[in-house]
Amino acid sequence: MSDDSEQNVANADDGLARAVVASSASAVVALDRDLAVLSWNPAAERLFGWHAAELTGRRAPIVPDELMAELNAVLERARTGGPVSLRTKRLRKDGALFDVGVDISALRSDGGALLGYVSVYHPVDDDRAARERGARRARLVRRLTDVVADINAELELPHVLDRIAESLTELTGADAGGFVLIEDDRLRLVSTHGLPGDLRGATADLRTSLVGKLLRTGKTVLLETGDQAMLDELIWSELPGLHTIALGVAAVGGRPYGALYALFAQHKAGHIELELLELLAGHAGIALGNAMAYQDAVRQRAHERAVVDASADGIAVLDESGSVRQWNPAAEELTGLPAAEVIGGRPPFPLPAPGEKLTTQLPSGRWLDVVSAEIVETAEVVVDFRDVTRAKELEEAKDLFLATTSHELRTPITVVQGFASTLDARWDKMSDVERRSAVRTIAERSRSLGRLMDHLLLGARAGAKELKVRVESFDLGERVRAATLGMPALSDKHRVEVDIPPGLPPVDGDTLATDILLGQLLENAFKYSPDGGLIRVAVWQDGDRVVLTVEDEGVGIAPDDRDRVFERFVQADSGDRRRFGGVGLGLYIARSLARAQGGDVTAHPRPGGGTRMRFVLAAAQAYIESDTPKR
User: What residues contact residue 45 under an 8 Å CB cut-off, 6+ apart?
Assistant: First the structure.
């Protein structure tokens, strides 16, 4: 062999080595310019049936005679052009003819001289299988995209978990699947597909589980087959014929949250299934994170809603334009406006500046304290308002009470002071009758001052709930007779009638408190019937109670005030009753004394005009339990 030939062979050997290394997985045949075999790799041996030693240095009898013209044309194209690919037929050693795909390239030296040809063969069936695998992979990827979109559309965590388990079997072809949560050192099965439903909630030890094994490897997926054991861990033995488990970790926020199990009993798992499992596990982590964030937002919103709805204060949330977006039940009650009428519009009252308080009155007469605060991040404004009507009325009543009390005190004090000064300065110049009259006036005004101070003291004790009573049985009829005795002589304009039936049972109560109460009711009857008329006092038994009424034909009480007159200082408000004086504590004291005894006092209209005060006490327990017939 010449030096040039040796060099050519050396170059051919180098080029051939590179080609073989590059295509070692395929059937590679290298030919010289005369089409003698230079190299015949193991894949070619398997494909054609000849060993390399049988063909090296000679032509390979693999081309049918009828296709030699095709081969020569292809070689010429490869020599003058570039690589050529075609589908054709070739012969095996056993004489069988089969379809094959071949890629033919010219083999050249570094200087460009033609050394031979390299043919890379692959069966058409392999092409078809490759195309089918590619098409299947593309279908699965498209389906994975759809599945991921479905999973991310779910916001309820249980639905997300169920959808993941279902999608797992759909994408990988697994016979069953499940999702386990990692809870400290335990696993809990929370979702299954293709497994008995009663397995949900089953738990296992994390450390000895496949999940623990996978976490220790630092990888995201694991394929475990029957000959690697651990197939009966957790609950998977419930699937007959189980031979393979594919496992993928789903992470939320960078931390393992759970794992997907794909279980194979009838079907097989391969690289594509493992890749899909890994992709699904990654997307599952994202979907779970979204669902958990949504659940947290829902819980937070529900908590906030519960707090707002349970608040006794009215609460409104306004958007950046000042329109109402939220209106809680207390707001409806305070304003009388349902949420449907308010939402989307302006609040029915003026708003203070953020951080300030505004007291305003609604058209209904109710007073509100209104405060507001701005949420900078959303430009929303939260408005809180509460009913301060009672406090407002009490404040006004107290102011009027002070003014009225000052007036009530000033009059008798002025009179006492005037007459006392007169007596001091003119004692010797006054007659005995004048002196007695002055002293009598001083005594009367002093008694008035004493009664006023008693009322103030009793009112203070009642307000502090410090009224002391001693409950015992006594005759209410007797107390009524004593209280009304001599009353007809007090006024020539009034007539007094007292109706006490015989056999009236005793009552349980306090005699002193009852005397004060009766005196107040009778005083009011005289005071508020200035034109005179009938004052009627009646007592009777009503079941296990004894009822007393005091009626007058006076100015009466407006319907809206029949309960308010028993509050402190209400008498001190404006109106027709104001002209009769007083500090507005009498009926408040009367009701307080009645309730301290276990009874009550209420105000009612009298048929024909005037007022009927109704006082109720319990009949004595000893009387009720006796066999004495009730009348």
Answer: 51, 52
Check if the beta carbon of residue 122 is closer than 8 Å to that of residue 28: no
- Local confidence band at 223 (pLDDT 50, 70, 90 cut-offs): confident
Q: Where are the alpha helices (DSSP H) in 485-564?
A: 511-527
d(C-alpha 42, C-alpha 26), whole Å? 9
CA pair distance 234, 176, nearest whole angstrom: 14
Of 79, 16, 22, 82, nearest in space to 52 by CA? 16
The Cα 325–Cα 316 span in angstroms is 7
The closest alpha carbon to 62, from 77, 49, 76, belongs to: 49
The pLDDT-based confidence of 483 (bands split at 50, 70, 90) is confident
Residues 56 and 68 sit within 8 Å (Cβ to Cβ)? no
CB 8 within 8 A of CB 115: yes
Phi/psi of residue 444, each to 5°?
A: -65, -45
**Mean per-residue pLDDT for 41-55?**
91
pLDDT at residue number 548: 95
| Distance between CA atoms of residues 515 and 595, nearest Å | 14
* Tokens matching residue 85: 């690919």
Alpha-carbon distances, residue 213 vs 184, 219, 221, 237, 259 (angstroms): 15, 10, 11, 18, 12
Whether this model's pTM surpasses 0.90: no
Structure tokens at 419: 């007459």
Mean pLDDT, range 326-344, rounded to an integer: 89
Least Cα distance to 546 among 514, 512, 517, 505 occurs for: 505
Token pair for residue 468?
Answer: 């002391």
571-597: per-residue pLDDT in tens? 534 444 444 455 466 787 788 888 888
